[in-house]
Amino acid sequence: MNILSSVIYMIWFLSEILLHRILRGGAPDDQKKKDKGSLAYIWIIILVSINTAVYISYKTKFPILQQGSLMNYIGLSVILAGMALRFYAIASLGRLFTVVVTIRKDHHIKKDGIYSILRHPSYAGSLLSFLGFGLSLNNWTGLAIAFVPVLAAFIYRMNIEEKVLTEQFGNEYAEYIQQTRRILPFIY
């Protein structure tokens, strides 16, 4: 691992920890129950996946590209693109963004900007960063371990969020679901 990789990984992880610390509050305890522990579940999956992916990548040789440094730079670029998408999505949602599944006072469904295409662009950005992390390891097994469990955890979380939003907004949210995709434009 080179210095650039270390710096980008640290910025990525520290930004996520900072986001969590800043945005974790704001929901009454009865609202936090809607989260169903999914945030803790995601953090556990992330920590296990990242550590396992790094370990497996160093212990096995299943390179994505023979030119490992090129794949490292591609992966780092994908991490940065994911971070940019995530921060843009969070900024676009403004005060309605929280890390705990909750409905805030005067909550509404955001349907413009990136939210006119994707229902969960913040998760799309995070997943793009995890994909980039896996690519930067330049190991097919490491890529799968870094990405697939996190994708499954985020799908679980999106299901919880969409259930809460459907309960709150009914047909309006059901129509929004029909008009948009979750995390991948035109596909999913």
From TrEMBL:
Pfam families referenced in this protein's UniProt entry, alphabetically: PEMT
PROSITE patterns, A to Z: S5A_REDUCTASE
A GO biological-process term: methylation
Protein's UniProt keywords contain Transmembrane: yes
This protein's GO CC annotations: endomembrane system
An annotated Gene Ontology molecular function: methyltransferase activity
Topology within the bilayer: Multi-pass membrane protein
Residue ranges of the TM segments: 6-27, 39-58, 70-93, 139-156
Domain of life: Bacteria
Subcellular compartments: Endomembrane system
Keywords from the named record: Membrane, Methyltransferase, Transferase, Transmembrane, Transmembrane helix
Cross-referenced PANTHER family: BLL3993 PROTEIN
Protein name: Isoprenylcysteine carboxylmethyltransferase family protein
Organism the protein comes from: Chitinophaga varians
